[in-house]
Here is the input.
Amino acid sequence: MVKSFRPTTRGLLLSSTALGVVLAGSALDTGIKFIGDANATSVVGAGNGLTFGRQMSSGAVTLSGTTVTVTVVSTLAAANTVTLTLPSGVTFAAAPSIATTGPLAINISSGGSGSSSAVYNVTTGGSAGSTLAFSTMSLSGLQSYIASNASATNFRLTTSITGDTVTNGSNVVLGNISDALALVTNGSTFSAQIDVPTGANRFVSGTGTALFAALGETSFTNNTSVLDASAGSLLTLSSTGGTTILTGNLANLSTVYATTTATCATAAPSGAITATLSSSAATFAGITAGTTFTICAIASGTGILQSGIYSLRNSGTVTSGSSQTSSATTGTATYSGAVRTVNYFVGAGSYSSYAYIVNTGTASSTLLVSVRRSDGATATGALTSVGAGASSLISATDINTAVGSTFLVNSDSRAQVTFLLGSTNLKVTGLLVNPGGIVNQMGTQFSD
Here is the structure.
């Protein structure tokens, strides 16, 4: 069973084909002393928390934070050998780097690159306190080892000193095996308001109105702590960039674009990325890493904008060919003024629906309507404004005229009708009437 790992860096994980290893930050087997007449001791220090993306079935992973230190207790004579041995199936891609202190000197005699061991000859003996440090462990086959030992939390690195006939096996911690987070994708959505008093074909912008609004931000960031399995190179976003998709009810928008400019305008500026736009999605291609893009929407200025929820989804491919996706929190588009909904509105027939609207204010107010029929069809339109102190009785015929379609044909045509009111001074009462020559039944759906 593959263990889970929650990375501290913000973002969505790669796909399950991009496993990685995390080297713990603490030293291992620190201060081990050999018993008997041993004259040396070895200490293995683990890596510093880097995540190594297991993107390939083969390739070298450089454990740059891992060091094996051999400390001489009394003396280590010349002609002795020091051997580092890896587990079966893992080999050195290159011989480890060597650093010594004191008079001690060694050189490699066999193994190293392509071998599971590296044998070093002591050419100059060392006195008490002299040290050997082996670092820059570049290993091949570690990916396969992990795949074959899915529950393993470490692998064994053995250090042996022939002249002292001692062997010290030290555990190098692999940490929990997890997906490698090679790409950080960030997205956020903003709330937007649609201006009802001037016709619901504009966005509210501060105290005035505008044809444009900012709906969110998106960015991709390369994780500089994640290395490819090949030669320790960093995994980066593909040169073609990532893709961001804004989804929601985008009807009656003329343009949606992404720009590095923090503010939006009535036209996309030079260098902006214009989305492929439908009534339900805006798709941006070529979002480059390291830059935050503001997502701007421009209304057509003619049709009624749609309220509802929308969200961002980012996807990108890193240089290894693995992909990563993430979704942002959901934003909303709401209407200014007032909104009243009649959930059950039917056409003329045995029963028919009406909406009785009264304007208690001192100024005339716009009256718009949005209709969603039970079969999912939608339409919007403008009704006659209601004057100050006046009232209006809205029928199915009036709604058909407003939306430009025969939406409510008879009593089998059922719909949810939303009235968009330019002022909170408009009060709406929904009525359901049985006009059998004599009104003998009348039900009130709601009154506010």
